[in-house]
Amino acid sequence: MPDPFYFRIPNTPSRLLFLDIDGVLNTLSDDEAGLLTRRCVDELKRVLLELPDLRIVISSTWREKFGLFRLGFVWRQYDLSEHWVIDRTPVKLFDSLGIEILSWIEETAPLLGIKPDVHFAVLEDEPDWIFPDIPKENAFICNPEKGLTKRIANRLIRFLK
């Protein structure tokens, strides 16, 4: 069930991004003092500004460590609008992240007025966590050393347009 703090969608999104954080918005080679890598965050902002009806579902392990309210605190430190985040995927024991994402689309999306055939992408650094359940064309895999790059962000924008 969606976190009640973020249960507000002004317009039903026609595009979804399932977002990992470690290895995507922060990198293994990160020398920055913050939790996230500014360059990666800037690329995510660019994607979101280019696709105004895109909404994010957090699929990162951060969804287990932090509630969306606490994650929102980190989010705001990087000037990211919390209206972009609508929920987090469920944690289902013994299921892959790919199954958790597909379950969210099947079970939760309709509760939010989102059609099950919604155009979606998965931004992840661990392909084994989503394959074979997520179609390859929906998967955008980051190198955890580099995180979200301009090249991947451009591909993501083209795919979701």
What's the topology here?
Blueprint lengths: L14 E5 L18 H13 L3 E5 L3 H4 L2 H10 L7 E4 L8 H12 L10 E6 L14 E3 L8 H11 L1
Parallel strand pairs: 1-2, 1-4, 2-3, 4-5
Helix pairs in contact: 1-5
How many E strands?
A: 5
Rg over CA atoms, rounded to whole Å, is 14 Å
Strand content: 5-15%
Q: Which residues form runs of ≥5 with pLDDT under 50?
A: 1-10
Strand neighbour order, sheet with most strands: 3-2-1-4-5
Structural class: alpha/beta
Q: Note the overall shape.
A: globular
Largest sheet: 5 strands, parallel
Q: Output the helix-strand order.
A: EHEHHEHEEH
What is the level-2 CATH architecture name? 3-Layer(aba) Sandwich
Mean pLDDT: 85
Amino-to-carboxy terminus distance: 28 Å
Helix content percent band: 25-40%
How many helices? The count is 5
Classified by CATH, the class is: Alpha Beta
- Count of discrete structural domains: 1
Provide the CATH superfamily: HAD superfamily/HAD-like
CATH topology: Rossmann fold
